[in-house]
Design brief:
Strand content: 15-25%
Shape: elongated
Largest sheet: 8 strands, mixed, barrel
Low-confidence stretches: 1-9, 13-52, 601-605
CATH superfamily of the largest domain: EAL domain
Structural class: alpha/beta
Distance between the termini: 120 Å
CATH topology of the largest domain: TIM Barrel
Number of strands: 21
Amino acid sequence: MPIDRPKPKTGAEKARLVKRRKPLRRAKAALSRPMRGRKVPGAIAATAALQQHDASFRLLFDSNPVPMIVCAQDTERIIAINDAAVAHYGYSRGDFEKLRISDIQAFEQLPPWRGDHSADEHAARTWKHVRADGSLIDVAIYARLLTFDDRAAVLLGLMDITERKRAEARLAFLAQHDALTGLPNRLLLHQRLDDLLAQTRRSGEKVAVLLLDLDNFKAINDTLGHAIGDKLLKGVTRRLRSSLREEDAVARLGSDEFAVVQAGVARPEDVSLLACRLIEILGEPYMLDGHSIVSGASIGIAMAPGDGDDAEKLLKNADMALSRAKSEAPGTFSFFEAEMDAQAQARRRIEADLRAAIEHDVLQPYYQPLVDLRSGRITGFETLVRWPDPARGMIPPGEFIPVAEETGLIHAIGSMILRRACMDAAQWPDGVRVAVNLSPLQFRIGNLLAVVMDALKTSGLPPKRLELEITETLLLDRSDHVLATLHALRALGVRISMDDFGTGYSSLSYLRSFPFDKIKIDQSFVRDLGSNHDAQAIVRSIISLGIGLGITITAEGVETEAELNCLRIEGCHEGQGYLFSRARPQAEIMKLLQAQRDARIVRVA
């Protein structure tokens, strides 16, 4: 089928078409160019006037969803508005046309198209406008010059950015404040504290930083739920705010940690009075959802300029003082002292050296004999970790084990010592067991069973020759996970021993919750046993209890013949202590066991 195609235009027709299109192109270009704040050139004004009369332009203006206003350039009076502007601002068309643009501006007198600003600045600036109901809105205004009804005018496009500005303000607030309490966070506290310290350096005034930590908050959170915990934090916030002067500051730094900045301090006694008042107020009961909750606070204090001249150092020193208050006497306050920093530096050195020692396999297992008190033969060895250092000699476990537990390094140490102990014990005679201490923290990761199984498999040691020692603190929360792990270990054939028996809170209930193979009498009850009648009564009761339950009883810290004789008389099964032997490395243990094969040994020199 033939297709009808338009006939080619003649040269004259093409010229007329181009002539008609040029003014429209100029008008569109004029509206798309930024306003320069100068008089519109005649050609552009003419094309704008042409566009204004164009029906498509009027349709675009009236039906545009963006509020638009046309203002007279000389009088600033509003001469045209579209439907979107009427709906958004709430003024009627008649009311609008009685107003100047400055009448709906909240604070500015100059119109948006005047002033020494570039077009980009005009477009980027935020203006406050007043709606008919009196409410304020934030608008971004885009202005273009044009000719309207043969007069110089300005077309304003009005973008309501009120919600965006509120969202931006909310984000800015949350970046520097705690979302739950509305208090400044650590970032804002740093800024304000540094500003305050800069002022006091000139005035010579002192500033105190009080770091507060709530007592028992974790227990409250765990038992009553996070909703109650949140309400408690809000209650603490209200009490802190009501107890401070206007010039003092309070911030929330963490879960249950708050900071108070006391300005204009004349003497340390003033800070002590504030600390006492805060401890008293925060220690009063809270009524939350029908629960009467008591959660006191411990406080650490650092003062500028003596304890630091910047926010970071003051907060660090206050935190060290808080740690002392919590460890020595919870519910009290402590001032920072210089030796605290020295102790902290020493602890950091131990941590760094300990990491290196673990990486280079420096730590070694030593073994202390467990002796059968009736036969005098060695029945097993307790594994004790030792850290030989070329410069400091043998570092006591009391110095590095707490650091290992605080930093989580105890997991690596525990796994390494367990593996080494099983490897060494596999070389001992079949009847000799090895005991390894477990930290409560090793149960938290959840892989302890796998670690034990791997050590037994790698070494080839029968499970019945491995004894794992735990302390009563592990069972304080009676965790189902802990009990399940202990039962799984015992199902492997591993023996479970309770160490330091009698030093906890409810030892008898623990013996009901889990069938222990052995309980070890803490050395505090064995010391001076021969002359201490109270200790004798306690030891007698423990031994009688163990015999009745069919549990092996081991006495720790046996150092004298009098203690040994007393334990034998009472029927204690095993003894351990310097009277028999100190802890020894594997090479010496092999010689000791060889000597036992040759002769009966009661005491090892």
